[in-house]
Amino acid sequence: MELSRFILATSLRLSSASVENYQPTPPPAASLPDHLLLPGRAMEANLAEEQECVVCMEQKNGAELRPCGHKDMCFGCANHIFKSGGHCPMCRAVIASVKE
Ligand SMILES: [Zn+2]
Ligand SMILES: [Zn+2]
Fold this sequence. Notes:
This protein is mainly α.
């Protein structure tokens, strides 16, 4: 009787200790365009939502995609998608060039 109570108390202590020592593993870093990984990149705070790049949501948009003419990405993201052979995120048109 006494022994089983002792085992129960010990196992409870062990389980609570292991919860205290539990370290959540940080999520893996998402793959970002090169210009977002550079240290000291320009942070433009308080951008209105319609001025934000739709990809990184940190830089100001305004890079013009050709031929579709969408201007919803910053130059860095637009160039990254253009160079990796991607499509316009707004209309899925093939990006032929990017105009800053
Ligand atoms: Zn961007
Ligand atoms: Zn487009």
